[in-house]
Amino acid sequence: MTELAGKVAFVTGGSRGIGAAVAARLARDGADVAITYRAAADRAQAVVAEVEALGRRGLAIAADSADPTAITTAVRQTVDELGRLDILVNNAGIFPYGPIEQVGLAELDHALAVHVRGVFLASQAAIPHLGPGGRIISIGSCFAERVPYAGVSLYAMTKSALLGLTRGLARDLGPRGITATVVHPGSTDTEMNPADGEGADHERTFIALGQYAAAADVAATVSHLAGPGGRYITGTAIAVDGGFAA
Questions:
Q1: Contact 220/22 with Cβ under 8 angstroms?
Q2: TM spans, by residue (predicted)?
Q3: FRET partner for 226 with CA separation of 20 to 30 A, picked from 1, 7, 51, 61?
């Protein structure tokens, strides 16, 4: 497919998991892709190699989404090196877990920095470069819609904030032909939450389909939103959760 031919995408946290799958899918659909990574340079370069093997341009940028200067500089570097920016995918994330009474200020601030401030700043930096047809797609979580067990209050709170931001962006940017959406993945087979990991069988009991998603399932929805099929979808969230929130 070449629905995204001539487009440039910027994917935060693109060296593994959902981010890597998104980068590969967008490249397969025709886009040049820049990704950020925090530490795994070798894995980021492997993603770039996959993008380039598909005949697209790839770029890996070391940038921690918790660092406001790093994330805005990465957006600018993408435009400088790839010539434009059409699609922003705010994917970088962490998974704080534990009783709320044990959450310290540093952990709270870090989760907010990655999931909320980093997304806001990346979007803010990208907006001047997005023209009509531009896309801002943020990766949320099924926990933003349903929290069936304890220990994820901080994570759920920070991911829930993305919908408020997205609704605001839709209003701010709609007159310019730019859309903003959230994708809420459910349990997805990644290193962060492997389908054969401890607690995975318990998580399956909450999923209507009874199985984990593949990262490619989430990437397919992101690519749809990024392409022509997403031109009239904005200010909303789409769940890719196997019925977790049903």
A1: no
A2: none
A3: 61
